[in-house]
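Appendix C reproduces, verbatim, an entry submitted by the partner laboratory led by Prof. M.T., so that reviewers can inspect both the input and the predicted structure.
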Amino acid sequence: MTISSKLFATQMLDQFKVIEERLQNLQTQIATGSRIPQASDQPLDAVKLSARREIETRIEQYQNNIAKASDRLTLVDSTLETAGNLATRLSELFVAMNTDTITDTERNAAVIEVNQMRETILGLANASDSSGDALFGGFSTEQNPFLRKSDGTVIYRGDGGEHSLSASENIKLPTSINGANVFMQVEDSSDIKSIFEIMSSFSNALATKNSFTQEYSTTNVRTGINLKLHASREPQIWSFQLTGPDGVATISASANSDSVSELATAITNSGVGVTATVSSSGMLTLAATSSSASGKIELSNISIEGYLVAQSDPKNYIDVLASDGTTVVAKLSDTIQGLGAQGAGLKALVSSVGLSRTTAGARLNNAESQQDVLEQRSISIKSEIGKLRDADIETLITELQSILVTRDAARQTYSTVNNQTLFDFLR
């Protein structure tokens, strides 16, 4: 069986077409470095490549999210670190100031420092990230979450939300700390207070004096010093140091809401040149008996059954009255505002800020761990993409050379056969 010259020519031309297409494809692969210049060339591998590129894009987005989360958490951590340093300084001030050897000048300086630290912490609480979003405002990021009212108190205007970003298909990373938990909910042994309340209480306590001094002269001795004791119904021992024109004495006597006569007697008999009388309304009047033209009467170290009474609000135990019974000043109050009572709140403040920073640090460490995981996933997926996409140039060149040789041989064969005459076939 012989093949006609026409059929032979057709078959050779078809073969040349295949060879040329393959040569063109190889040249494109070599030029681009890609195994799949067109999806139609290798459709299955093209689908696999597309799927892995989608995964690669998601991984890159997760990596960007983690970078943003890390930046924000780093700001949170550094902010809380500063707040923690201030809290530690407050504790140091408490230890230094909680002694009888501290002068008024030193206490006043401490008050200024505490008030300044309070302003600094308020600024830290309103800190924002590089985009201008509040760090501690929850989802409410466009305004300062902490606002100082006209009365000096600080309120929280944020919400309870916590920002988060996806770190993988199933993991979300928190990028913030709830501001209310950090600054408004410090729990000590007795109550839940804000950092600002604790600092204000400490400042007030530093400014407190457990004493009351009344200057007198010959013109007001007769009027005297009018005191109204807010004693309990049950008898309690009232104690204080009394300074008069003739000396100093410690007064200790029982008093209740119905009678302060025992206390008045103790004052009169103290020998310091001060007499005490009790009006029908229970007002206690102290007057100097000395012939001195001027001097002072001072009550200090005031306590009720061992419980110190301080010179600040909120609970008044002693009112200083005018002669007609109206209140002139009401400064002597419960020592809950006193310096010694501030220790628990300040300790709780330090602990609360430290715990918040620990939380921020843990979240930052988690973000870094997730970044390491994504880096490994990125390396793996890039390797898979490379295997599907990248051409083996050396192999392709070898194949190209081989096909070129084959093509040249086929051309020579075709030329030889095509040039033969009928007589060549009849031999």
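The CA atoms of residues 28 and 252 lie 107 Å apart. Additional entries are available on request from the coordinating office.
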